[in-house]
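Follow-up to my post from last week.
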Amino acid sequence: MLQVVVLGMVAVSALAVVAARDPLRQAMVASIYGLVLGILFFVFAAPDVGLSQTVVGAVALPLMILLALAKVRGGEE
Amino acid sequence: MSAAVRRNVFLMFGAGFAALLLWSFGGLPDFGHYAGPYGDILNASSIPERQTTAVVSAINFDYRGFDTLGEEFILFAAVVGVASLLRNLRGERDRRPDDDARGRRVREPSVAVSVLGLGLVGPTVLVGLYVVVHGHQTPGGGFQGGVILATALLLVYLSDTYVTLLRVGPMALIEFAEALGAASLGLLGLAGLIWGTAYMENVLPLGTAGHLLSAGTIPLSSVAVGLAVTGGFAFMLSEFLEQTLVVRRRR
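User reply:
Got it. Predicted complex:
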């Protein structure tokens, strides 16, 4: 039952990533999606993959997007 | 190609793809009914052979340690790539990181963000260190712990200024951690050759499963990977922040 709920959350947040069109907002939504996907791996008894997914999908990837956006939007005087 | 044709092509192939996907899901084994032999063999042998309770770490840092060495150098190459892409180009100059373009001081974060961020730095470092050094006992290991440790540096930036970040994690220290981690993982493998067995063979005493000092070279590899990953992610973070906050295109 828990697994079905989390699968549903993954589906909803994955759609939300696609539906968010503004890159800044998309980075935030992608971070939530990464966290939910990490929880999915955790409830399917794969805590190692869950941890990797959480640190990469919820932290590292959105961070790189945010930093790249900051560089693209700033950078000129 | 007009929009209608494009949509029809998409719908055709999308439907085909969905049908194949559903068909293949029907053939999957039920959850918890693993069929292959290797997982069962490793589950049974990781404690008697390696004194390691975390089977995934036993595979990553021992049975398939060579793959991890390759992955480590993929990350290393990626960091080198970021460094060469984010160097100062012609027509770019550095400005002082502590002022803004119009000569004002940089806006500081709100007190709430500062307090929360600084309060989280300590626990984040502790969790990161725990995950790195307990790689052979609990889920996680050098990679996961390393990224957690690097986010502590991000918290410092979020709750204070870029200047403080440079003081807490100077570029030279970050580069040194990255290089030391990558090099010690490669050199750890040489221990096997010196002892006359194979490269990356687990040659240290194994101890007792569940003790912090056990599992031979597995925790050492985990710490080496942790150093390299912390260094790599912290390096990318600092490079990107430098690009955003310091480097300016010359008018």
